[in-house]
Amino acid sequence: MKTVLYILFAATMMVGCNNSKATKSFDSVDASRFAEVIEDGQVLIIDTRSPEEFNEGHIPGAVNINIDGEDFEAKVAELDKSRPVAVYCRGGRRSKEAAAHMVSCGLDVTELSNGILSWQGDVERTH
Description:
The protein is an alpha/beta fold.
């Protein structure tokens, strides 16, 4: 049942943006390469986890856009398409869904393949 819901959710998200770039894909990279990508000050780092997960620890400089939040599509639509995006979640599933949607919206996306669980760099906590 969860799989069906995720498929429906992903399909619904794809409708929200122009699919003219639907053939474009995103890069899914390991933590080492992700760290290199986010060194560029132009890259917008997005954490797709819940606000509670985000507050427990996130990559410094990350912005929380919860993929399960009601306003996810609206927030993605507002992102600056001229800036590259680096996206992650806990283990990689949610960020892959988010990255696919972001690409359909015309964003250049790099995704952390195994999520923050694979991250070796600094982590900020918000309390």
